[in-house]
Write a structure and sequence with these properties.
Number of strands of chain A: 0
Strand content of chain A: under 5%
CATH class of the largest domain in chain B: Mainly Alpha
Number of helices of chain B: 21
CATH topology of the largest domain in chain A: MetI-like fold
Largest sheet of chain B: 2 strands, antiparallel
Order of helices and strands of chain A: HHHHHHHHHHH
Strand order of the largest sheet of chain B: 1-4
Distance between the termini of chain B: 8 Å
Structural class of chain A: mainly alpha
CATH superfamily of the largest domain in chain A: MetI-like
Low-confidence stretches of chain A: none
Structural class of chain B: mainly alpha
Oligomer: heterodimer
Helix content of chain B: 55-70%
Mean pLDDT of chain B: 82
Low-confidence stretches of chain B: none
Radius of gyration of chain B: 35 Å
Largest interface: A-B, 107 and 115 residues
CATH architecture of the largest domain in chain B: Orthogonal Bundle
Number of domains of chain A: 2
Number of strands of chain B: 4
Shape of chain A: globular
Number of domains of chain B: 2
């Protein structure tokens, strides 16, 4: 606010609480390129051998990092695309189109939005096995997209709700069909929503861990989260330099997107969403 | 009419997805909870087989001892089929003689049958031949695999076991899954059930309290800081929420492991080297609550910050003119405005903390011992990942069912709670 006397005690308290996180971030970066000796916190010489996973297999029997990265990208982008596509249409139907049972669909949407989907994973595991989609990328893509859907529809409905009715009224008056009104007049208005949803569902897919862990445990369908987890679990020597280098590599897209869209992301997440 | 068609066309892909991955799984969780489905029963169906190793557990069932004895003893039966085979290999005479004297008789051990074969008028002299001949009359069902219940029952009839026991035996021999309520009685009996429940309650209450108090603190304190400084702190506290969980927990693992940051710094003061996350259950709980708490506080900060921003600045200026100090401003202006966001955060986080296990799985995996095993993690461990290797889908589904019910109940409650009418504003273009 206006006169800000004595902010330093506040800064001090905040700084104390933030120290652990800052130390973690700092050493996350330092340790990935220069491991200090265990028992010391002073970084040693620059050492790029932690990044060896980029040009060789860490151990035999593991897929290459490029295969895993490709899987992750395919998983995250397809999921984001599917979620956005289905949410765009479903959100419009719920926001603007008059249909029987609309209150029930809306109520169902809110319930689904709050419902903790992770509890269904045992049943989904068995469904995927019965469908023959277990341990396939297609399987986890479908599951992830479906589970993200209530959130996506919710967000898109929110964006459609802010579009002025006058735009559509004018379109309908001029004799355009509802479909054409949606496609040519309303869609341009919700472009920011589309972009936001694409980014958020991409990030969510990129970070997803439990679904691939349970539903696609094979090495050919590994994504970066399960790959990194497997490397950590199998390593008896606690090679944190290697883990952190993989972690750095893994989080590059997240950090980049964060740096570019920081403000928008905070706004969207501030709208009260899942997590 | 056209609008309706369009509406359903627009909605149906989402509805199909919701059906397959929400409604069906909810129903199936209920269904599976009433089965004994596991890795060993498979998920599709099964065959009928009783193995020798199962004889011990068969005695614990209600099958009569005579039947069990017969089942074990029904080693060799002189049957027409066996005789025909014998005639083919060892000649009609031998078979004829055996038929006259022994047709329908059973022999418990091969030795007994071999003695008979040796003492025939036209004996089979070679030991190896006698063995081969005896094998033609094997009639036991033990170790044999039958694809259908009918085949299995037919085999039982041949052994001459009391038909009263056939149903029980068939049921016992079935290797697929069956309907049962045993999962729930097991949950009621196991002492670990109460433990997981109380672990979960402890975890949810502590983490939630931390999330809200600390989230509020972050939101309010950054609100009073000058822009640059506030943004720095917001950035620091936003990252836990956006970083991939595997990486976020890895940083905590490094921070707390035997030669990580805390151990190194504590070592300077002569503290013994130890893992600060897994040393005792107190350590583990502290770590688990902080790991989840930081992520939750991150969300809390964002939510509360945007709520504070929505407070008209004129109110804050007015309070300052009236001589309110910082604390009074927070207490009488900001906090009352936070009622809805706090309520939302509480209800929303309660559900997600009750059911999510990702961070605990990555950090402590329920350890040390089972001290940080929460309900959702127990469901995961039972059904999807355990050291025994036999994944008990049925029991796991019973665990999950409790959470599904709580989830549905709370979601419906929230629906009543939050302003549903507002969402229902009617579409204005009527055609």
């Amino acid at each position: 606010m206006t006169g800000t006397p004595r902010i330093w005690p506040l800064v001090l308290i905040l700084a104390i609480f933030s120290t652990p996180l800052v130390i973690m971030y700092l050493y996350q970066i330092i340790d990935s390129v220069a491991s200090p000796d265990p028992g010391s916190l002073i970084p040693g010489e620059l050492d790029l051998s932690n990044w060896r996973f980029l040009w060789e297999r860490i151990d035999s029997g593991r897929p290459t990092i490029w295969q895993v990265t490709f899987n992750t990208f395919l998983f995250a982008s397809t999921t984001a695309f599917l979620v956005t596509l289905l949410s765009t249409t479903a959100g419009y139907a719920l926001s603007r189109l008059n249909m029987p049972g609309r209150p029930y669909f809306l109520g169902g949407l809110i319930i689904l939005h709050a419902f903790p989907t992770i509890t269904l994973i045992i049943a989904i595991f068995i469904i995927l096995q019965a469908l023959g989609l277990f341990d396939t990328l297609l399987g986890i893509i479908l599951v992830k997209a479906a589970l993200e859907l209530p959130f996506g529809v919710w967000i898109m409905k929110g964006f459609y709700d802010t579009v002025p009715w006058e735009i559509e009224m004018a379109g309908v008056q001029d004799g355009a069909s509802r479909f054409r009104v949606w496609w040519e007049l309303v869609m341009p208005q919700v472009k920011p929503g589309l972009a936001a949803l694409l980014i958020i569902s991409f990030l969510s897919g990129w970070s997803e861990f439990v679904l691939p862990l349970v539903l696609a445990p094979g090495s050919s369908t590994q994504v970066l989260s399960t790959f990194m987890n497997a490397v950590i679990q199998d390593d008896a020597t606690a090679d944190f330099g290697l883990f952190k280098a993989i972690g750095m590599y893994y989080s590059i897209p997240v950090i980049v997107i964060y740096l570019i869209f920081q403000k928008q992301l905070m706004n969207i997440y501030g709208g009260g969403t899942k997590g | 009419m056209k609008t309706r068609l369009l509406a359903f066309g627009f909605l149906s892909p989402a509805l199909i997805a919701v059906f397959f991955f929400f409604l069906l799984p909810v129903l199936l969780t209920v269904v599976f909870a009433f089965t004994n489905m596991s890795t060993s029963t498979g998920i599709m169906g099964g065959a009928y087989q009783i193995n020798e190793t199962q004889m011990g557990s068969l005695r614990d069932t209600e099958v009569s001892p005579e039947s069990i004895e017969k089942l074990e003893g029904a080693g060799y039966l002189i049957s027409e089929a066996g005789l025909a085979a014998l005639a083919e290999e060892f000649g009609e005479d031998t078979a004829e003689e055996l038929r006259d004297d022994y047709l329908g008789e059973t022999f418990a051990a091969r030795r007994d049958l071999e003695r008979v074969l040796r003492n025939l008028d036209d004996p089979i002299r070679n030991t190896r031949d006698r063995k081969a001949a005896a094998d033609l009359f094997v009639s036991t069902v033990i170790g044999e695999r039958f694809d259908t219940a009918e085949d299995f029952r037919a085999a039982l009839v041949e052994t001459g076991i009391d038909p009263a026991d056939h149903d029980l035996l068939t049921e016992f021999a079935y290797t697929g899954w069956t309907w049962t309520t045993a999962n729930f009685s097991l949950l009621a009996e196991l002492p670990s059930t109460m433990r997981y429940a109380s672990n979960t309650a402890f975890y949810v209450v502590c983490t939630l309290t931390f999330n809200i108090l600390f989230g509020l603190f972050l939101a309010i304190s950054t609100f009073y800081l000058p822009g640059r400084l506030a943004n720095t702190f917001r950035a620091i506290w936003f990252l836990p929420r956006i970083l991939p969980p595997v990486l976020y927990v890895l940083m905590w693992n490094w921070f707390t492991w035997d030669r990580g940051f805390i151990a190194t710094v504590a070592g300077w003061f002569g503290a013994p080297q130890q893992n600060w996350m897994l040393h005792t259950s107190t350590h583990a709980w502290t770590a688990v609550i902080l790991i989840n708490g930081f992520v939750g506080a991150s969300l809390g900060m964002i939510l509360f910050s945007s709520a504070i921003k929505a407070i008209p600045t004129s109110m804050l200026y007015a309070s300052e003119v009236d001589g309110a100090n910082r604390w009074q401003q927070v207490r009488y202006i900001i906090l009352p405005q936070m009622r809805w966001p706090i309520l939302f955060m509480t209800s929303y986080q309660t559900l997600s903390l009750l059911t999510s296990f990702e961070y605990i799985l990555l950090a402590t995996d329920g350890g040390p011992g089972r001290s940080t095993e929460v309900w959702a993690l127990a469901a995961y461990h039972t059904a999807l990942n355990n050291y025994g290797g036999n994944l008990q889908y049925g029991l796991g589904a019973a665990y999950a069912l409790a959470l599904v019910f709580i989830g549905i109940a709370l979601s419906i409650l929230y629906l009543r709670f939050f302003n549903f009418k507002e969402l229902l504003s009617k579409p204005r273009i009527e055609q």
